[in-house]
TrEMBL record:
Name of the protein described by the UniProt record: AraC family transcriptional regulator
GO MF terms held by the record: DNA-binding transcription factor activity; sequence-specific DNA binding
Keyword field: Activator, DNA-binding, Transcription, Transcription regulation
Gene3D superfamilies for the chain: Homeodomain-like, Regulatory protein AraC
Domain HTH araC/xylS-type: 184-282
Superkingdom to which the source organism belongs: Bacteria
Length: 293
């Protein structure tokens, strides 16, 4: 099955519960745009008020917010309010823009949202293995497999995403630009060499730094250990292989750097809540649905 069959948008229209501080999930999507007619204007949309977080996976797009212009490259996200003075589109010099996005109701998370933007800005860089992106992937997979069926489940997922984003934003280097050179180099090395790495000691040697000082610094700026970060990168790569290829589970494990298929299954289950085989078999569900209570 091709990756295109996994793309789609999942909308949620659960009845609100007045007086309860529940987070409203409006939609979650995984899309690849190749048409240069793709162009959203935040002042002409009629589906607000909403909060939009959109994360670039491949390709790039363009964003303009109140006259400020940004090129949205791989690993960059943007945070905007709908309605609002912003516009985003696929530029003429780019063939595609692949991204994950989530649309939220402003109540009761608006205060946290504004605090996050104050800390990391409206176009932060987030590593693929970071907590917010892992949470976003989890929400999309839960929607894909039909598991978000009521207001409370939707609220729990939304709250987790917002808390991961807030926790990420607490670190002054969370935008990536202010990370120490060793942390930037470590992230780049892991995302390029995830299939062949042995451990944290090897990583420290590659960077030419003290292992213990490096571990403390990495955790302080990313909110996780290098081992945890590497596991998230490997599992995200494994998910792509499970979606796009007919490789066996052992072959997928070896491709992303695990010498043991059983250990790969253990890590996959820990991070996703299901085995690789179960994840692969769930792909036959419809790729886009709208849920009602």
């Amino acid at each position: 099955m091709s990756l295109e069959q996994h793309r789609g948008t999942y909308g949620f229209r659960f009845a609100e519960q007045p007086g309860l501080p529940l987070c409203g999930l409006f939609a979650i999507g995984f899309e690849q745009e190749r048409s240069h007619t793709y162009n959203w204007n935040g002042l002409t949309r009629s589906d607000g008020p909403l909060l939009l977080f959109q994360y670039t996976l491949e390709g790039c797009g363009e964003l303009e917010v109140e006259g400020r212009h940004y090129r949205m490259e791989r690993g960059q996200a943007f945070l905007v309010e709908i309605p609002g003075a912003h516009r985003y589109w696929l530029p003429d010099d780019t063939e595609e823009w692949e991204f994950l996005y989530i649309l939220l109701r402003p109540h009761p998370v608006m205060g946290i949202w504004e605090e996050i933007k104050d800390r990391i800005g409206e176009t932060p860089f987030l590593p693929l293995g970071s907590g917010p992106i892992a949470a976003l992937n989890d929400i999309y997979r839960e929607a894909l497999t039909g598991k978000i069926t009521d207001l409370y489940t939707a609220s729990a997922h939304t709250y987790r995403f917002m808390m991961e984003l807030a926790r990420f934003s607490l670190n002054k280097g969370a935008s990536g630009a202010a990370w120490p050179p060793t942390v930037k180099a470590a992230v780049q090395y892991m995302e390029s060499n995830y299939s062949g790495m042995v451990g944290q000691e090897q990583l420290a040697q590659e960077l030419g730094v003290s292992k213990y000082h490096f571990l403390r610094t990495f955790a302080a700026f990313t909110g996780m250990t290098p081992g945890e970060y590497l596991s998230r990168v490997r599992i995200e790569k494994a998910i792509s292989l499970l979606r796009q290829s007919n490789l066996s589970i052992d072959e997928v494990a070896a491709s992303v750097g695990y010498s043991s298929g059983s250990y790969f299954i253990k890590v996959f289950r820990k991070l996703t809540g299901q085995t690789p085989a179960r994840f692969r078999s769930s792909r036959e569900l419809p790729y886009s649905r709208l849920f009602f209570d």
